[in-house]
């Protein structure tokens, strides 16, 4: 039978690494991850590992075979809702997280209510129209929250073209901004992982009071 360290033991170890001031800010942060594919699942795991204490997972989809080349799911997760499969993984990394799930599609009708309790919104959708809808809703309903989004990360182009940019007040965009999804240039785990790390790191910076990229 596994014996897990207590919350206090793990927290104290992280404070040694990050300092207590940093860890307290991370632990008290409230971050929503909208879209739990290659970007979102990777971002959520990175945030869980640094103990961002309150994560809000949003996705309506189920894990299928086409997801496994780039998303943080396993064969054993096939058929599960992504919210449930990812929550299981996150709690295996950090059983002390406060995880809220909404297994729904984000729409113009529910977008305002969905993110009311979140401080930082992470956009990780696949479809351009869904991205645009969330960005528009952010500016309309939540101009004082922070939004971190992704655009342009397909294929195996140079790692160095992935960047983080501040494109408007409280709005940050990660990616190369141009690379689209094509049959010969599909989404792959390494480059998506680079973009996901950009998004996760920008979220950490915002939590810690760093507004510039």
How do you describe this structure in short?
This protein is of the alpha/beta class and 213 residues long. It has helices at 7-18, 20-28, 38-49, 82-93, 111-114, 128-141, 189-207, and strands spanning 30-34, 54-58, 98-102, 120-123, 146-150, 163-168, 171-175.
Q: How would you explain this protein's 3D organization?
A:
With about 210 residues, this protein is α/β, with parallel strands linked by helices. It has one domain (about 5-205): NAD(P)-binding Rossmann-like Domain (Rossmann fold, 3-Layer(aba) Sandwich). Helices cover about 40% and strands about 15% of the residues. The protein has helices spanning about 5-20, 20-30, 40-50, 80-95, 110-115, 130-140, 190-205; strands at about 30-35, 55-60, 100, 120-125, 145-150, 165-170, 170-175. Strands 3-2-1-4-5-7-6 form a seven-stranded mixed β-sheet, sandwiched between helices. The chain starts with 6 loop residues before the first helix and ends in a 6-residue tail after the last helix.
Q: Tell the overall outline.
A: globular
- Proper CATH architecture: 3-Layer(aba) Sandwich
Order of helices and strands: HHEHEHEHEHEEEH
Order of strands across the biggest sheet?
3-2-1-4-5-7-6
Helix content: 25-40%
Round the mean pLDDT to the nearest integer and report it. Answer: 95
SS field, number of helical segments: 7
The helix/strand class is alpha/beta
Low-confidence stretches: none
Largest sheet: 7 strands, mixed
CATH superfamily: NAD(P)-binding Rossmann-like Domain
Radius of gyration: 17 Å
Question: Which class in CATH terms?
Answer: Alpha Beta
């Amino acid at each position: 039978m596994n014996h897990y360290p207590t919350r206090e033991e793990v927290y104290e170890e992280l404070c040694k690494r990050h300092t207590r001031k940093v860890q307290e800010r991370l632990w008290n942060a409230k971050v929503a991850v909208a879209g739990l594919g290659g970007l979102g699942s990777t971002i959520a795991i990175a945030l869980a590992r640094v103990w961002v204490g309150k994560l809000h997972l949003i996705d309506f989809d189920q894990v299928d075979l086409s997801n496994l080349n780039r998303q943080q799911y396993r064969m054993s997760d096939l058929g599960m809702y992504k919210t449930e499969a990812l929550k299981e993984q996150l709690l295996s990394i950090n059983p002390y997280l406060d995880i809220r799930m909404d297994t729904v599609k984000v729409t113009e009708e529910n977008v305002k209510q969905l993110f009311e309790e979140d401080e930082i919104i992470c956009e990780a959708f696949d479809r351009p129209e869904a991205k645009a809808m969330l960005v528009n809703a952010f500016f309309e309903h939540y101009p004082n929250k922070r939004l971190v989004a992704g655009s342009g990360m397909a294929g195996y182009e140079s790692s160095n073209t992935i960047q983080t940019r501040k494109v408007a007040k409280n709005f940050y965009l990660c990616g190369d901004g141009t690379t689209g999804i094509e049959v010969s240039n599909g989404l792959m785990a390494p480059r998506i992982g680079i973009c996901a790390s950009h998004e996760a790191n920008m979220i950490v910076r915002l939590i810690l009071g760093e507004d510039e990229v």
